[in-house]
Specification:
mainly alpha; 6 helices; about 75% helix
Length: about 180
């Protein structure tokens, strides 16, 4: 099997997230947008934290209970890197290859519904302009989206990796 625990559990987490995302897409793609998208992000974070914990637990047990912070951080952050990169690539494939444009239409509908909530607070021309811009949207997953998303999640998962590593670390006793 895979020797590097960060890669191993990063791939497990990636596979889990791909299955979840594909199931969501097949069952109810409207759940990609609106408030439910926050729930999806929460599920992703939970999957990554669980995979980070499992990776460090396995590494710690192989090292007689010892796992210095630096080693734990390498492992946990590797999980975050693998999940981030594979998730971004899978998102691209889902939106640009698998989907036939229905997600783009759902996205536009969701954005217009959101704007309509604030229509009474907006100038009519500004509202119509915003709706027109939404209608002109040709892609959701752009290179800018992919770059910003990747950077954001790498920073976010580095912070999570530091927290998990601080919790699971166990330094060798001096003189041992």
């Amino acid at each position: 099997m895979l020797e590097n625990k960060g890669v191993k559990y990063g791939l497990y987490g990636s596979l889990g997230m791909m299955i979840y995302t594909l199931a969501l897409y097949l069952i109810d793609p409207t759940k990609f947008f609106g408030w439910f998208s926050l729930f999806n992000m929460f599920i992703g974070v939970v999957v990554v934290v669980v995979c980070m914990s499992m990776a460090t637990s396995e590494e710690k047990s192989e090292n007689k209970g010892i796992l210095p912070f630096a080693d734990a951080l390498k492992t946990t952050f590797m999980v975050g890197v693998i999940v981030t990169i594979t998730s971004m690539l899978f998102t691209f494939v889902l939106y640009e290859v698998i989907d036939n444009g229905s997600l783009l239409n759902l996205y536009k509908e969701n954005q217009v519904e959101f704007l309509e909530r604030f229509a009474d607070r907006m100038d009519e021309d500004a509202f119509e302009n915003a709706v027109e811009q939404i209608d002109e949207t040709e892609k959701i997953v752009t290179s800018q989206f992919m770059t910003i998303g990747t950077v954001f999640f790498l920073i976010f998962y580095f912070i999570i990796a530091m927290i998990v590593s601080a919790i699971v670390k166990r330094e060798p006793h001096p003189g041992a």
